[in-house]
Specification:
With 272 residues, the chain is an alpha+beta fold. It is built from four helices and 13 strands.
Length: 272
């Protein structure tokens, strides 16, 4: 692990540990939580050698992109911990717009997309600390300088309105500020309603056709919104149902601007 000389800042009381290379920012956050770190810590890297995404998938992590994980200790009741994915998504979309990346959308459950191509991903994980204490790690990976190829979905760099790549330093500092702001709005889960509405205001394909795949198989239907707890509202052949976890694909021609919506969903990555 190589410490970076490049300074990055976050709003107090947040601290920042910045590395050029790490195995995984989320793994480093986990190690620190188990070692007794008090939290409110960002781990940032310019490259990961063992980055990971949802369901144990590899997150390709070349140099130049942003890889950051926020460590929090007991940020909320365990049942509300998965809502942190929505908090982080709202913060990331706002930060992207702050640095000039217009047109970003949030794709359920945990992606940021630009013109239908994935430019960032989020992962919320929990670490049990014993005595009913819980560490939560919010991992964020953003394609700033390059977008990995050879994947089974389209990818893109996060670019400003002039088409220039977003720098990871500028994006991180806006992300850290926006995340702190969104956490205040969320109020440890008691303020989830405005976070849900903010997420829906940036939702990709709201009201449009989608395909989902989970333990019930692969199905096509319509993305109707989120319920009040953050579950996907999916309209299929049997009517509207709530979906706790699934992979989701946006079907052609309907990544349009969202309309004011109904309810709230999340993939529950954080153990309770």
């Amino acid at each position: 692990m190589n410490a970076s000389p490049i300074p990055l800042t976050a709003p107090p009381p947040w601290r920042v540990a910045h590395f050029e290379t790490l195995d995984s920012t989320s793994e480093e956050a986990r190690r620190r939580a188990l070692a007794g770190d008090p939290g409110r810590l960002w781990i940032v890297a310019g490259e990961q050698t063992e980055g990971r995404g949802r369901r144990g998938r590899t997150w390709v992590s070349p140099k130049g992109n942003l890889y950051a994980s926020a460590l929090m200790i007991d940020p909320c009741a365990p049942a509300a911990a998965a809502q942190l994915g929505f908090v982080a998504g709202v913060a990331l979309a706002r930060a992207a717009e702050d640095v000039g990346a217009a047109g970003v959308r949030l794709k359920w459950p945990n992606d940021l997309v630009l013109k239908g191509a994935k430019c960032a991903g989020l992962l919320v994980e929990g670490v049990s600390l014993g005595a009913k204490r819980l560490a939560c790690v919010v991992g964020i990976g953003v394609n700033c300088e390059c977008a990995p190829g050879g994947l089974d979905y389209p990818t893109a760099r996060l670019t400003d309105q002039g088409g220039s790549p977003t720098t990871r330093g500028a994006l991180f500092e806006r992300l850290a500020s926006r995340f702190d702001e969104a956490l205040e709005q969320w109020r440890a889960g008691t303020g989830f309603a405005p976070i849900r509405l903010a997420w829906l205001a940036k939702a990709a394909a709201l009201g449009g056709p989608i395909r989902i795949e989970n333990h019930n198989g692969r199905r096509e239907g319509t993305f109707e919104g989120l319920d009040v707890d953050g579950r996907l509202l999916f309209r299929g052949t049997s009517g509207i149902e709530t979906v706790e976890t699934a992979d989701l694909w946006i079907l052609p021609a309907l990544d349009r601007a969202p309309e004011p919506a109904a309810a709230g969903s999340h993939a529950r990555e954080c153990p309770t």
